[in-house]
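Recall that a protein's primary structure is simply its ordered list of amino acids. Everything else, from secondary elements to tertiary packing, is in principle encoded there. The following example makes that idea concrete.
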Amino acid sequence: MKKIAIVTVANSGMGLATTIELAKQGFHVVMMCHNEEKGLRALKDAISQSQSSSIELIQGDLGSFESIRNFASAFQSKFEHLDVLINNAGVVNVKRELTSEGHEAQLGVNHLGHFYLTQLLMNDLQRATQGRIIVVSSGAHKWGKIDIQDMEISRGYNVAKGYGRSKLANLLFMYELTSRLEDTNVTINAVHPGAVSTNLGIDRKTEFGRIFVNLLKPFFLTPTQGAQTAIHLATSNEVASISGKYFYQMKEATMSKLAQNPHLAKGLWLWSEQQISKSI
Protein backbone atom coordinates (compact mmCIF):
# COMPACT_ATOMS: atom_id res chain seq x y z
CA MET A 1 0.00 0.00 0.00
CA LYS A 2 1.38 3.41 -0.98
CA LYS A 3 2.17 5.70 1.95
CA ILE A 4 0.34 9.03 2.09
CA ALA A 5 1.86 12.33 3.19
CA ILE A 6 0.54 15.86 3.62
CA VAL A 7 2.89 18.83 3.27
CA THR A 8 1.53 22.22 4.33
CA VAL A 9 2.27 25.30 2.21
CA ALA A 10 3.85 23.11 -0.42
CA ASN A 11 3.86 25.57 -3.32
CA SER A 12 7.41 26.88 -2.81
CA GLY A 13 10.62 26.62 -0.81
CA MET A 14 11.04 23.69 1.55
CA GLY A 15 7.42 22.63 1.16
CA LEU A 16 7.85 22.10 -2.56
CA ALA A 17 11.27 20.47 -2.09
CA THR A 18 9.81 18.12 0.54
CA THR A 19 6.93 17.21 -1.78
CA ILE A 20 9.32 16.34 -4.59
CA GLU A 21 11.62 14.23 -2.42
CA LEU A 22 8.76 12.27 -0.81
CA ALA A 23 7.22 11.60 -4.23
CA LYS A 24 10.58 10.32 -5.46
CA GLN A 25 10.56 7.89 -2.52
CA GLY A 26 7.18 6.48 -3.52
CA PHE A 27 4.78 8.48 -1.34
CA HIS A 28 1.47 9.80 -2.53
CA VAL A 29 1.81 13.46 -1.54
CA VAL A 30 -1.04 15.88 -0.86
CA MET A 31 0.07 19.49 -1.21
CA MET A 32 -1.82 21.92 1.03
CA CYS A 33 -1.63 25.34 -0.59
CA HIS A 34 -3.38 28.60 0.22
CA ASN A 35 -3.32 30.07 -3.29
CA GLU A 36 -4.81 27.66 -5.81
CA GLU A 37 -3.16 29.27 -8.85
CA LYS A 38 0.31 29.09 -7.30
CA GLY A 39 -0.50 25.61 -6.03
CA LEU A 40 -1.35 24.34 -9.51
CA ARG A 41 1.92 25.74 -10.90
CA ALA A 42 3.81 24.07 -8.05
CA LEU A 43 1.94 20.79 -8.63
CA LYS A 44 3.02 20.78 -12.27
CA ASP A 45 6.60 21.54 -11.21
CA ALA A 46 6.58 18.80 -8.53
CA ILE A 47 5.27 16.18 -10.97
CA SER A 48 7.92 17.17 -13.53
CA GLN A 49 10.84 17.16 -11.08
CA SER A 50 9.86 13.98 -9.25
CA GLN A 51 8.74 12.08 -12.35
CA SER A 52 5.80 10.92 -10.22
CA SER A 53 2.13 11.47 -10.95
CA SER A 54 1.25 10.50 -7.38
CA ILE A 55 0.94 14.10 -6.18
CA GLU A 56 -2.18 16.18 -5.80
CA LEU A 57 -3.29 19.59 -4.58
CA ILE A 58 -5.97 20.35 -1.99
CA GLN A 59 -6.51 24.04 -1.31
CA GLY A 60 -6.26 25.07 2.34
CA ASP A 61 -5.45 28.25 4.27
CA LEU A 62 -3.85 27.78 7.69
CA GLY A 63 -4.98 31.29 8.59
CA SER A 64 -8.64 30.24 8.52
CA PHE A 65 -10.19 27.58 10.76
CA GLU A 66 -13.02 27.11 8.27
CA SER A 67 -10.54 26.49 5.45
CA ILE A 68 -8.63 24.01 7.62
CA ARG A 69 -11.86 22.12 8.30
CA ASN A 70 -12.66 22.07 4.59
CA PHE A 71 -9.17 20.77 3.79
CA ALA A 72 -9.40 17.96 6.34
CA SER A 73 -12.85 17.00 5.09
CA ALA A 74 -11.64 16.92 1.47
CA PHE A 75 -8.67 14.77 2.46
CA GLN A 76 -10.79 12.36 4.48
CA SER A 77 -13.26 11.96 1.60
CA LYS A 78 -10.42 10.53 -0.51
CA PHE A 79 -8.15 8.70 1.92
CA GLU A 80 -8.64 6.31 4.83
CA HIS A 81 -5.34 6.94 6.60
CA LEU A 82 -2.37 9.32 6.79
CA ASP A 83 1.22 8.16 7.26
CA VAL A 84 3.07 11.48 7.46
CA LEU A 85 1.97 15.01 8.31
CA ILE A 86 4.64 17.65 7.72
CA ASN A 87 3.64 20.91 9.37
CA ASN A 88 5.92 23.02 7.23
CA ALA A 89 4.20 26.40 6.92
CA GLY A 90 5.94 29.38 8.50
CA VAL A 91 4.93 32.96 7.80
CA VAL A 92 7.02 36.00 8.70
CA ASN A 93 5.20 39.32 8.94
CA VAL A 94 7.09 42.58 9.33
CA LYS A 95 3.83 44.32 10.21
CA ARG A 96 1.30 42.90 12.67
CA GLU A 97 -1.37 41.07 10.69
CA LEU A 98 -4.36 38.98 11.71
CA THR A 99 -5.85 35.64 10.67
CA SER A 100 -9.51 35.21 9.72
CA GLU A 101 -10.34 34.62 13.40
CA GLY A 102 -8.42 37.71 14.53
CA HIS A 103 -5.26 36.05 15.84
CA GLU A 104 -1.80 37.54 15.33
CA ALA A 105 -0.84 35.91 12.04
CA GLN A 106 2.58 34.44 12.84
CA LEU A 107 1.19 32.57 15.84
CA GLY A 108 -2.12 31.99 14.08
CA VAL A 109 -0.63 30.29 11.02
CA ASN A 110 2.61 28.80 12.33
CA HIS A 111 1.08 27.37 15.52
CA LEU A 112 -2.72 27.54 15.74
CA GLY A 113 -3.36 26.49 12.15
CA HIS A 114 -1.10 23.46 12.50
CA PHE A 115 -2.49 22.69 15.97
CA TYR A 116 -6.02 22.51 14.55
CA LEU A 117 -5.05 20.61 11.41
CA THR A 118 -3.21 18.00 13.47
CA GLN A 119 -6.23 17.52 15.75
CA LEU A 120 -8.55 17.02 12.77
CA LEU A 121 -6.22 14.46 11.19
CA MET A 122 -5.26 12.53 14.33
CA ASN A 123 -7.61 9.60 13.67
CA ASP A 124 -6.21 9.32 10.15
CA LEU A 125 -2.67 9.19 11.52
CA GLN A 126 -3.65 6.51 14.02
CA ARG A 127 -5.09 4.39 11.23
CA ALA A 128 -1.67 4.23 9.55
CA THR A 129 0.75 1.42 10.37
CA GLN A 130 2.86 4.15 11.92
CA GLY A 131 1.85 7.79 11.81
CA ARG A 132 4.53 10.45 11.89
CA ILE A 133 4.13 14.17 12.57
CA ILE A 134 7.03 16.45 11.69
CA VAL A 135 6.95 20.04 12.92
CA VAL A 136 9.21 22.53 11.15
CA SER A 137 10.37 24.86 13.93
CA SER A 138 13.52 27.00 14.00
CA GLY A 139 16.50 28.03 16.05
CA ALA A 140 14.52 31.27 16.44
CA HIS A 141 12.57 29.52 19.20
CA LYS A 142 15.51 30.24 21.51
CA TRP A 143 14.66 33.93 21.67
CA GLY A 144 10.90 33.27 21.79
CA LYS A 145 8.78 34.17 24.81
CA ILE A 146 5.12 33.38 25.47
CA ASP A 147 2.78 35.44 27.62
CA ILE A 148 -0.53 33.59 27.95
CA GLN A 149 -2.10 36.89 29.06
CA ASP A 150 -1.11 38.62 25.79
CA MET A 151 -1.04 35.96 23.09
CA GLU A 152 -1.89 38.43 20.33
CA ILE A 153 1.08 40.74 21.09
CA SER A 154 -1.26 43.70 21.29
CA ARG A 155 1.61 45.73 22.76
CA GLY A 156 5.13 46.13 21.37
CA TYR A 157 4.87 43.88 18.31
CA ASN A 158 7.93 43.30 16.15
CA VAL A 159 8.68 40.64 13.58
CA ALA A 160 11.45 38.92 15.57
CA LYS A 161 9.32 38.73 18.71
CA GLY A 162 6.36 37.32 16.76
CA TYR A 163 8.35 34.79 14.77
CA GLY A 164 10.43 33.55 17.71
CA ARG A 165 7.29 33.13 19.77
CA SER A 166 5.56 31.12 17.03
CA LYS A 167 8.55 28.79 16.68
CA LEU A 168 8.68 28.31 20.46
CA ALA A 169 4.96 27.47 20.30
CA ASN A 170 5.77 24.78 17.70
CA LEU A 171 8.08 23.05 20.17
CA LEU A 172 5.74 23.44 23.14
CA PHE A 173 3.01 21.86 21.00
CA MET A 174 5.34 18.95 20.23
CA TYR A 175 6.32 18.63 23.90
CA GLU A 176 2.72 18.40 25.10
CA LEU A 177 1.50 16.19 22.25
CA THR A 178 4.35 13.72 22.80
CA SER A 179 2.93 12.69 26.18
CA ARG A 180 -0.59 12.52 24.75
CA LEU A 181 0.63 10.14 22.02
CA GLU A 182 2.15 7.62 24.42
CA ASP A 183 0.83 4.11 23.79
CA THR A 184 -0.24 5.04 20.25
CA ASN A 185 1.35 4.31 16.88
CA VAL A 186 1.99 8.01 16.19
CA THR A 187 5.25 9.88 16.77
CA ILE A 188 6.00 13.60 16.64
CA ASN A 189 9.35 15.28 16.18
CA ALA A 190 10.53 18.78 15.29
CA VAL A 191 13.12 20.17 12.91
CA HIS A 192 15.40 23.19 12.73
CA PRO A 193 16.08 23.28 8.97
CA GLY A 194 18.96 25.75 9.20
CA ALA A 195 19.28 29.03 7.31
CA VAL A 196 17.35 28.26 4.13
CA SER A 197 16.68 30.50 1.15
CA THR A 198 12.87 30.53 0.82
CA ASN A 199 10.05 33.05 0.41
CA LEU A 200 9.88 33.69 4.16
CA GLY A 201 9.77 37.41 4.81
CA ILE A 202 8.43 38.29 1.36
CA ASP A 203 5.04 39.98 1.39
CA ARG A 204 2.61 37.69 -0.44
CA LYS A 205 0.67 40.65 -1.88
CA THR A 206 3.32 43.28 -2.67
CA GLU A 207 6.47 41.11 -3.06
CA PHE A 208 8.21 43.52 -0.66
CA GLY A 209 11.46 41.99 0.55
CA ARG A 210 12.22 39.83 -2.51
CA ILE A 211 15.27 41.87 -3.60
CA PHE A 212 16.78 41.59 -0.11
CA VAL A 213 16.13 37.83 0.01
CA ASN A 214 17.65 37.34 -3.45
CA LEU A 215 20.82 39.18 -2.40
CA LEU A 216 21.27 36.80 0.55
CA LYS A 217 20.62 33.58 -1.41
CA PRO A 218 24.31 32.66 -1.89
CA PHE A 219 24.76 32.48 1.89
CA PHE A 220 21.84 30.13 2.56
CA LEU A 221 21.04 26.46 2.12
CA THR A 222 18.85 25.53 -0.82
CA PRO A 223 15.28 24.43 0.00
CA THR A 224 16.25 20.85 -0.93
CA GLN A 225 19.15 20.92 1.52
CA GLY A 226 16.94 22.45 4.22
CA ALA A 227 14.30 19.75 3.72
CA GLN A 228 16.64 16.80 4.26
CA THR A 229 16.10 16.46 8.02
CA ALA A 230 12.31 16.52 7.65
CA ILE A 231 12.59 13.88 4.91
CA HIS A 232 14.79 11.78 7.21
CA LEU A 233 12.23 11.97 10.02
CA ALA A 234 9.40 11.11 7.63
CA THR A 235 11.04 8.07 6.04
CA SER A 236 13.94 6.60 8.02
CA ASN A 237 13.59 3.40 10.04
CA GLU A 238 16.31 4.77 12.34
CA VAL A 239 13.85 7.23 13.91
CA ALA A 240 10.74 5.04 13.81
CA SER A 241 10.55 4.75 17.60
CA ILE A 242 11.76 8.26 18.45
CA SER A 243 9.26 10.90 19.54
CA GLY A 244 9.38 14.31 21.18
CA LYS A 245 12.85 15.24 19.91
CA TYR A 246 14.26 18.26 18.09
CA PHE A 247 16.56 17.61 15.12
CA TYR A 248 19.12 19.65 13.21
CA GLN A 249 21.17 18.25 10.33
CA MET A 250 19.60 14.82 10.93
CA LYS A 251 20.86 14.67 14.53
CA GLU A 252 19.14 15.35 17.84
CA ALA A 253 19.70 18.94 18.99
CA THR A 254 19.08 20.88 22.18
CA MET A 255 15.89 22.85 22.74
CA SER A 256 15.65 25.88 25.00
CA LYS A 257 14.50 25.33 28.58
CA LEU A 258 11.27 27.20 27.84
CA ALA A 259 10.49 24.74 25.05
CA GLN A 260 10.54 21.96 27.65
CA ASN A 261 8.48 23.74 30.30
CA PRO A 262 5.51 21.44 31.06
CA HIS A 263 3.39 24.18 32.63
CA LEU A 264 3.89 26.52 29.66
CA ALA A 265 3.22 23.68 27.21
CA LYS A 266 -0.03 22.75 28.95
CA GLY A 267 -1.10 26.39 29.21
CA LEU A 268 -0.51 26.94 25.49
CA TRP A 269 -2.41 23.74 24.66
CA LEU A 270 -5.43 24.81 26.72
CA TRP A 271 -5.37 28.31 25.20
CA SER A 272 -5.19 26.81 21.70
CA GLU A 273 -8.15 24.52 22.38
CA GLN A 274 -10.15 27.49 23.64
CA GLN A 275 -9.48 29.50 20.47
CA ILE A 276 -10.67 26.63 18.29
CA SER A 277 -13.79 26.00 20.38
CA LYS A 278 -14.78 29.66 19.93
CA SER A 279 -14.88 29.19 16.15
CA ILE A 280 -17.01 26.04 16.06
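The two ends are 35 Å apart (CA to CA). The chain has a mean pLDDT of 90.
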